[in-house]
């Protein structure tokens, strides 16, 4: 599932820019223009809160203390975007209030996305070292793949594609999603990269694995 971001940014042009590009980069974005939209955290339950509001320090403090009557949100990762006038003292205060990262303005969009992904990785629960789907077993530390106990050697991208599909083997992953998360593509255009790798992976695994759901994407196991 795409990571959900709650974006609090009062400046409409900046908020619109960030919403548009973050959505294109695969995030689900809920945009807000006022610090009082902290209530959305309880409703939207985002994976990360991105705060560009001038009252960001106060908002971060309130999140960490917990919302009165709320049941969720104290541990949600928070990234603060500093104001044009921010200084090193503001940065220290931001971390004291509990933010996970801080970025000065003006900021570069690509750096912001890299920081978002880094914070999400740190906040994610640890992945299981062993993954099993049907007779397919993956040992992450050694990158060893077996099918019915027989070793299968996979090139890097086929291995990464298998790991992604095996993370939820019954689910159909869209082509855009797989190209974005396995290859880092923002848009798949007319590329046949995924189809070629999926076809080779299917042959290597044998059996009835790596199913093409026409017009949608791929899953490892089907009904």
Which strands sit side by side, in order, in the main sheet? 2-1-3-4-5
Distance between the termini: 20 Å
Q: Beta-strand percentage?
A: 15-25%
Q: Give me the strand/helix succession.
A: EHEHEHEHEHEEEEHEHHEE
- Which regions contain 5 or more consecutive residues with pLDDT less than 50? none
Name the CATH class of the largest domain. Answer: Alpha Beta
How many E strands?
12
Reported for the largest beta sheet, the result is: 5 strands, parallel
Shape: elongated
* Average pLDDT taken over every residue: 85
Q: Helical region count?
A: 8
Helical percent range?
25-40%
CATH superfamily of the largest domain: Response regulator
Second rung of CATH, namely the architecture of the largest domain = 3-Layer(aba) Sandwich
What structural class results from the helix and strand content? alpha/beta
Rg measurement, Å: 21 Å
CATH topology of the largest domain: Rossmann fold
- Tally the structural domains: 2
